[in-house]
Amino acid sequence: MRLLLLEDDQQLAKGLLQAMVRQSYAVDHFDSVKEGLAAIEYEHYDLVILDLGLSDGSGLDFLKIYRNKQTEPVIILTARDTIEEKIQGLDLGADDYLPKPFDVNELQARIRALLRRSSGRASNQIVYGDLEVDQKARAVSYKGQSISLSRREYNLLEALLSNQGKVMSRANLEQTLYSWDEEIESNALEVHIHNLRKKISSKLIKTVRGVGYMVAEE
Ligand code: CA
User: Does the pLDDT value for residue 22 go beyond 80?
Assistant: First the structure.
């Protein structure tokens, strides 16, 4: 899962980034409307965390443009907890709203709920044949046996299972795994796929030659 964080309070942003990375999301952080708009030209995000008072203007200006392009969930953060702003944000297509100060655990629970909703699932659990994934605990079991996965192996598995029946391109999967400031080793994706097949089942992930990888629809 790849998230965009637009927040100009550097201290808050730093804390949020640390918390998000611990949850194994890939996160890109910027502090202005301008940079946010530039980022969505190049990247696809599964969710946006949007502060309303950004360094060069209102987060609502970003939201207006974003909603013309993308339907992925947006959660608004604001210090100025006015009813008008909240209504304006929701009218412009924000999916949720969290007044500052907030508990980072609450933000994370809301992010999980929004991601769940946008993928059409009602719970934190993905069941695929003998494979069970608990997205809250980030725990995976296969045929009742718990499987230990690295952060990136887990992210990759979650991305593939969330897109059953669709071929995910290499670029797509790499986006899920890495933030802008992380370097991608050229064969890293193959290594992670190899490990997942070895740890779970060789039949789970199909290679679509020249395109990418997929998990068949159940
Ligand atoms: Ca701000």
Answer: yes
d(CA 184, CA 202): 24
**How does the average pLDDT of the chain come out, rounded?**
90
Classify residue 209 by its DSSP letter: T
Quick: pLDDT tens for 116-170. Answer: 888 777 788 899 999 999 988 889 999 999 999 998 899 999 999 988 999 999 8
Residues, Cβ < 5 Å to ion ligand 1: 8, 51, 53
Pair 166, 211: CB distance under 8 Å: no
Q: How far is CA 70 from CA 43, 57, 107, in A?
A: 11, 21, 21
17 alpha carbon – ligand 1 mean position (Å): 15
CA of 53 to the centre of ligand 1 (A): 4
Q: What is the whole-number distance in angstroms between the Cα of residue 193 and the centre of ligand 1?
A: 40
CA of 89 relative to ligand 1 center, distance in Å: 15
The radius of gyration computed from the CA coordinates of the chain, to the nearest angstrom, equals 18
Q: Quick check: pTM over 0.85?
A: no
Q: What was the pLDDT predicted at 78?
A: 83
DSSP state at residue 185: P
| Amino acid making up residue 77 | L
Q: How far is the CA of 85 from the centre of ligand 1 (A)?
A: 14
Give dist(CA 177, CA 153) in Å, integer.
9
